[in-house]
Amino acid sequence: MMRLTLQGMLALIILATPVIAPTWRDAIAAPAAARNVAAITVEGNRRVEAETVRSYFKPGANGMLDAAAVDDGLKALVETGLFSDVKIDRQGGRLVVRVVENPVIGRVAFEGNKKVKDEQLSQEIQSKPRGTLSRPLVQSDAQRIAEIYRHSGRYDVRVTPEIIEQPNNRVDLVFTVDEGQKTGVKTVNFVGNNAFSASRLKDQIKTHESNLLSFLGGNDVYDADRVEADRDLIRRFYLKHGYADVQVVAALTEYDPEQKGFLVTFKIEEGQQYRVGAVDFRSSIATLEATSLSGFSHVSIGSLYNVEQVEKSVEEMQIEASRRGYSFAVVRPTGDRNFEAHTVSVVFSIDEGPRTYIERINIVGNTRTRDYVIRREFDISEGDAYNRALVDRAERRLKNLDFFKEVKITTEPGSASDRVILLVKLEEKSTGDFSVSGGYSTTDGALAEVSISERNFLGRGLYAKASVTYGQYTRGASLSFVEPYLLDYRVALGLDLYWRQQLANSYTSYGVTTIGFSPRLGFQLREDLSLQLRYSIYEQQISLPSYLQNCNNNSSNSLLAFNPTPAYIANVLGGVDPTNSTSSGYYGWGCYADGESTLPVRMELANGAAWTSMIGYTLNYNTLDNNKNPTDGLLIDWKQDFAGVGGNVSYLKTAIDAKYFTPLVSEIVGVVHLQAGMLNQVGNTQLRMLDQFQMGPNLVRGFASNGIGPRDITYASLGVTGDALGGTKYWGASAELQMPFWFLPKEVGLKGAVYADAGSLWGYQGPTSWAATGEVNSAACKCGLQYDDSQVVRSSVGVGLIWASPFGPLRFDYAVPLTKGKYDVTQEFRFGGGTSF
Predict the structure, then answer these.
(1) What is the pLDDT of residue 580?
(2) How many CB atoms lie within 10 A of CB 534?
(3) What phi and psi values does residue 146 have, to the nearest 5 degrees?
(4) Could you read off the pLDDT of 645-662 as tens digits, one per residue?
(5) How confident is the model at residue 212 (pLDDT cuts 50, 70, 90)?
(6) Eight-state DSSP code of residue 691
(7) Closest CA relative to residue 124, chosen from 103, 102, 143
């Protein structure tokens, strides 16, 4: 008689139980159904090979398929997304796998999307034509499309996927998009801000409130990622102004159904403001004297504690230590707060860091930009010692290229403990621009420009631009090219080819046509100091309307008080009286009776085109906090140009221009502008009128273009003054206060200004006589050029309106001259601006 154990009875029960096609959940309890993989039969497959299905069933260590192996294979098949249904059955000693394949996607289409193009949506989703349909993947794609719209501010978006059956187990996938309306930011509020006004803080963040001009921008649209980034911008702003304990504890967002927009509130705990109490330098490296690096510190005792200056000091000190051979030196700043005195004692500690080397620099995401364009921004390469300061500098340089939407450099462990891998993650963005620009100014009149430019030409980091300008008084064309790394050195080579034509207008009787070529080399000496060397060769040609160069005997000009007799006219040859034989006291009355141009202008015209061959340099010092809208910092340009390297013009021209910006109270910014220049004759070549400095509102506002300085007054007694002659020396000083309109939203971009200007231009050294026509000054006759060259100080006061408009930067000025030269030309109102669209 057979005796059965409990285990044996259970086995018989299981074997006697019929198998019902299980789902993958039921298969967990299934027993071993086959001895090996060859005992698996696949049914229902059309595109997927049976062997591929069998490969998902892995036998155990004994080479047999048990229940766990069958269950794992079932799960793996489901997770492939290739099948809409998978069932497992047992027939005798075989395992039968019945599959229903997912259909193939014939096409993917989008309907209702007007704000986002099909191409962009196609790149973002994972469901592709000729791919296998996966319903979970389709739902994920719908969510991804909705996320794209939410990032552009459309939170009411609805995305509905539709699967349309087609013959031969194929489907069309259609995403229907209901875009909804943009969800804007209605208010941006700050809680806890006592040191800075809300309007000042709004200047620091990227999120803006909606206003009438919001349709021209996009920063008024709510973006959760942007709001989060704004928290760091606010924190950095406080840290820059001495608030070392600041915390932006929250950024609260709430949707208001009544206003149909978001309310954003930043909660700030400012803490107290600190100044630098002491600065110390310590080194644990025996051969490196800490104080030897003190010259690279930007932190000074008594100044506001500025985290940005501390970071810049650390970077420059660490780089200098690396240059001296201390590749692993690490500079660590520490700050000891004195809460009672409100000071921070800063200590820069220089220590020997871990000996870590860069194994590789991996670059991902650069689909267009060449690898070497990115690698050359690094001051370190593979195999060098790892230096965090140099890595941070490289990241900053890559961002400044403006080639990428996002730049992030991270580290990964290398093949050994002393090796790291730098991973450079990039996201490309469009670098080409086609623009049509238009504008108007009281000097140049209406003008338009068409230009095409590429900042990353051919993905090689080259800059190229071509432009054509056509205006009422100004016309021109130019081609520009810049190679930022000449021969793989950090030296920028620029080439410019240009043609410009300035026509006669209300301020000058003549036109000037210039055609030239200028190569230049740029060197970045420091982060705030750059040098440019240049060579220019150009041709200039004067042009005059016929009525200004006819020099006839027409004396019928009712505007002139002097009316010569016919006998006087008869005594002059062609209207020219070189000897002043009539003793009239006037030279060439016939020439000026109908309005003749001034002597230097006519000489330039008679001499023909002049070639100028010139070398020069510019030294630029820039510590501005923002180049487009500065509120703090110093900008100095020192320029010198020497003409006479060939050509028929010789001179030495020197100029300096300095602007200092400083924040005052209640968001008022003070601006001090100083400028000066000198032109020196070189050799025996006389200076031309076109070589002289020409000044107007660029020196003292309230004066017309070319309205200041020496002027032709040969016939001033007849009520006629000629052209501005220019001068060889000038100086100017300006003080200005710029302030926002507190009652207007910041996003409008309007600022007011009040200012006072003073300056002078003098020292004309151009031609004053012309022997060929007899226009020569002598004791017997004032037959040459008579001009006013007084050194009177010109001054004015005025108000201005500055608008950083969507149509480009615009400025309106109304200035009243307080002091002026006798023959200066004033222009109290001035307007200028333009745009690209």
Answers:
(1) 39
(2) 18
(3) -60, -35
(4) 988 899 999 999 999 999
(5) low
(6) G
(7) 143
CA 828 to chain centre: 34
Average pLDDT, rounded, for the chain: 82
pLDDT of residue 777 exceeding 70, the answer is: yes
CA atoms within 13 A on the CB side of 470: 3
Mean pLDDT of the 326-346 span: 91
The class level of CATH for 6-101 reads: alpha beta
Which numeric CATH code is attached to 357-428?
3.10.20.310
Q: Measured between alpha carbons, how far is 557 from 588 in angstroms, rounded to an integer?
A: 14
Nearest to 206 by CA among 244, 242, 237: 237
Is 760 within 8 Å of 791 (Cβ atoms)? yes
Which residues have CB under 8 Å from 560's CB, separation 6+? 593, 718, 719, 720
Q: Coil, strand or helix: which one is 731? A: strand
Secondary structure class of 372 (helix, strand, coil): helix
- CA 229 to chain CA mean position, Å: 19
Q: What is the dihedral of CA 16, 22, 28, 32, to 10 degrees?
A: 50
CA–CA separation, 328 and 382 (whole Å): 15
**DSSP characters over 287-337:** TS-GGGGGGG----TTSBP-HHHHHHHHHHHHHHHHHTT-TTEEEEEEEEE
- Mean pLDDT value of segment 739-762: 86
pTM: 0.66
Place of tokens 């970077």: 315
Structure tokens at 137: 């993947």
Q: Where are the domains of the chain?
A: 6-101, 104-178, 184-269, 275-352, 357-428, 597-836
CATH 3.30.70.100 fits domain 184-269: no
- DSSP reduced 3-state for 274: coil
What kind and span of H or E run contains 543?
strand 529-543
pLDDT in tens, 144-161: 898 888 777 677 788 999
Mean pLDDT of 584-603: 61
Tell me if 6-101 shares its fold with 104-178.
yes
What is the bridge-based pairing of β-strands 669-681 and 651-663?
Answer: antiparallel
Asked whether 115 and 154 are in contact (CB, 8 A), the reply is yes
Summarize pLDDT for 88-139 with one digit per residue, the tens.
Answer: 887 777 788 888 878 888 889 999 888 888 888 888 888 888 888 888 888 8
Pick the CATH number of 597-836 from 3.10.450.330, 3.40.50.300, 3.40.50.720, 2.40.160.50: 2.40.160.50
Pick the CATH number of 275-352 from 3.10.20.310, 2.60.34.10, 3.30.40.10, 3.40.640.10: 3.10.20.310
Quick check: 585 and 711 in contact, CB under 8 A? no
3-class SS of residue 320: helix
DSSP string, 582-639: T--S-S-HHHHTT-PPPHHHHHHHHH--EEEEEEEEEEEEE--S-SSS-SSEEEEEEE
Q: Residues 95, 45: contact at Cβ < 8 Å?
A: no
Residues 609-652 have pLDDT tens digits of: 999 999 999 999 998 887 777 888 899 999 999 999 988 899 99
Q: CATH second-level architecture of 104-178?
A: Roll (3.10)
Side chain identity, residue 730: Y
**Dist. CA 390–CA 330, nearest whole Å:** 11
CA angle, 828 then 834 then 836, to 5°: 175
Among residues 238, 256, 255, which one has the least CA distance to residue 247? Answer: 238
Indicate the range of 32-41, 108-117, 679-688 predicted with least confidence: 32-41
